Amino acid sequence: MRDDQIMVAGASAGGGLTAALTLYNRDHGDVGIAFQVPLYPMLDDRMLTESSQNNDAPVWNTLSNKLAWQMYLDNQFAPDEVPIYAAPSRATDFHGLPATCTFIGDVEPFCDETMLYLQKLKNSGVPTFSKVMEGCFHGFDMVCPNSAAAQEAVNFLTETLQYATTHFFQKQPE
Q: Which of 23, 49, 84, 136 is most exposed, with the fewest beta carbons within 10 Å of its own?
């Protein structure tokens, strides 16, 4: 087993926690993370993007998103009090984060915030790999695992992870 290829991954809220963990680890940690996979991640409590507003998609929509943020943040659910380690889209510095791979449906609330997050990573020199799945809603790959879209997304993820294992390494601190 290699200790220079630690990868972290999660989906939905777990995708947001993946992004938060890599931010926290960059700032405070003592583990070298080589790659992150925040799949259709929950990143921004402010719900400012077009796809997060008035979204009535199946599985996850604007209302369920707002309720989830309120439950997660509890008494920190306020515009100025949310730390970047709880809502990674609030970060302003994306340098030094690990290479990132994700896929997301284009009709789900997290689509725009995920694409914005990826753009911030790219602007900071972080390699990114992404696939936007047309007509897909939140968690489409789990709800309809045998669909063509789910198979395409899983193939994309598998190919990217195979690439990551030969291209992305992060030495562990002494």
A: 84
